[in-house]
Amino acid sequence: MTDSPQSPATQLPTIEQKIDALNELAGQLCAGEPEQALTLSKEALQLAINADYILGRAASRRTLARLYGQRRQWAQALDYARQAQHDDSLLADATGQIQTRLILGEIAGGQADFSAAAEHLLAALELASGSPAHPLQSECHLALANLFKQQGDFGPALTHFEQYHHLTAARQRQAEAEARRRAVKLSVLAEIGRQINTAPDLPTVLKRIASRAKEMLLADNVAIFMHRPHKNSFDTLLALGPDAPAINEFAVLPGRGIMGHILQTGHAELIENTAVDPRVIQIPNTDLPNETLMCAPLPARRQVIGLMALWRNLDRGPFEPADLDFLAALARQAAIAIEHVRLVNEAEEAHQAADAANKTKSTFLAKMSHELRTPLNSILGFAQLLGRNPNLDADSRETVKIIGRSGEHLLTLINDILNYARLESGQTTLNEKEVDLFLLLDSLKEMFQLRADEKQLRLEFSRQTNVPRYIRTDEAKLRQVLINLLSNALNFTQTGTVSVAVQRAAFSSVPNSLLAAHYALLRFEVNDTGPGIDPQKTETLLKAFEHPSPNQPAPAGAGLGLAISQKFVQMMGGKISVDNQPGQGATFCFEITVGLVEYVADNLHPPPVSIESAPVDLSLLPADIIAELVLAARQTDMVQINQLIDHIRGTAPDVARNLASLAYNFEYDRILALLGAN
User: What is the DSSP string of 362-382?
Assistant: First the structure.
């Protein structure tokens, strides 16, 4: 086996390419637009003469001879044909000589010189017959058949017509066979394309590609080489065939041999016979027979990452140019498979790195939040104790209130950031249960009524009659979303109305009958008559650390409320949208799918708890826990309240039980009273 070097095909200079293009176009226009064809041929001829481009000169003269023959200007036609014949002899171009002889035969026939015409046409046929299946053989037979028919010599005419039809039929069969081969090749390429996404690993895909190449191209050996950057070589990744053991020990070096040359040029090449190449490189431990060799690069990321090579003994015939095209396509598929695996691996590594970074971030935030909240809760607890001291003067009492408000604000920021970090890292999950939606809405109205009254705003809640009362959803998240939207609406509305509307919508993606029995699609709208939202902020409004403030200072907070609300709604299968009317107000909408509760569970209506009849001993609770419970109740943060209740169940079960009953009915005022914070 060998790796043979070969110089790359020299590309034509620009002037020669232009001449060829002019000649090709002129030939196409001969029948339909002869005048334009004549002009183009003369231009091409002049350029070819100036450039001493013999091949282009001969083609131009053949076209001019044919055009003048069509005009029956025999002298000019004959002159150009003889000049073309001279050019053909300089090139030893058999195809050109056949074409020129056919034109000379047409000219002689047009002048009624049948003897000269027959001489030229028979000479053309002899040249065409010297090359097996030359495409011009049939044209020669047809021209001779027409010539003998014109002379009335029907015997030879019939013979040449039969030969013409025989060759035409053979060419048609050959074309059909080639079309079938192309279809099979395309099918193989499509099959490999599917396997790239379905095969379990890269070696399996590459082995299938190599096996198909060996089978379809009748190769004796096939190999795929891959770049090893640390060695500056291309080592064998896969080899199939009798010489596979030897090929596996072989490495291709850039610039050495034909394969090394292809690595530098990036162009596929075909070596018909490696034995006649003076720079043959024999692969160690293999014989040195007469072989035909094909190589194609594996291109990726604008560079060659590998090489695919096939060898076949010449006793079985050389490879053909069509085979090289198929090999190049297979090599591209192999490169795609390699890149696919690389991208998958990179994506997996990036995903793992992102997970690790998120875990580190969440751990850091959780620890920092704990470290910050512990002393902060102590500050809040002692501030509340100081505030109850009757000996404080008015200024000192106001100072203590400022300390408390500032601490509560800081604790709110810490909780928001921690909640957002948990959402980002996927640590927050849905906790669905049976919910009394009407009771939830009523409690929200009671909660915000005082704030609305203080600003002399109308607070309106409405719901359609077909809205179900008992649903199954994550009550805490739904409540938090509505609280965030209502808080923003009340913050930015100075006059007019803030309203909440709930309606039952129709499912659009599937037939209603499939869902209506068990689920409902609820649409929530929170509307205000405030100044609206700055149009420049509408696109980023629901992102973290953004405030919906138009042209006024943003309210206290980290700007995470809407971002957290959006993520909560997305977890429940919806998405928040904004209908903004600058100067007139804004409407925030979202739709969620909720389960329908077929019965009213007893625990939806727990018996009310009387604080007077169920005294609790708060001395069992640390001051920082009491302070955090008070803050959560004032902020109506049901998630935080439930977490704190779970935290104290072991140390203060009576307090936890009473708080849980009050929290279930959203009785925040009574929670504050129980904690002595009214």
Answer: HHHHHHHHHHHHHHHHHHHHH
Taking the C-alpha atoms of residue 252 and residue 182, their distance in angstroms, rounded to an integer, is 31
**How would you classify the pairing of strands 233-240 and 251-252?**
antiparallel
Joined tokens for residue 443: 């409690």
Burial 87-99 (b: 16+ CB within 10 A, else e): bbeeeebeebbbb
Residues 439-468 have pLDDT tens digits of: 889 888 887 888 888 889 999 999 999 999
Closest listed residue to residue 594, CA positions, set 501, 658, 518: 518
Long-range contacts formed by 248-251: CB under 8 A, 24+ apart: 249/284, 249/285, 250/283, 250/284, 251/225
Q: How far apart (Å, rounded) are the C-alpha atoms in residues 572 and 480?
A: 13
Strand-pairing partners, residue 581, are: 585
Q: Which two tokens stand for residue 184?
A: 């099979």
The verdict on pTM exceeding 0.70 is no
Retrieve residue 585's tokens: 């107000």
Are 185 and 213 contacting, i.e. CB atoms less than 8 angstroms apart? no
N-terminal to C-terminal alpha carbon distance within the chain? 95
135 φ/ψ angles, rounded to the nearest 5 degrees:
-65, -20
Give me 253's structure tokens. Answer: 């070096």
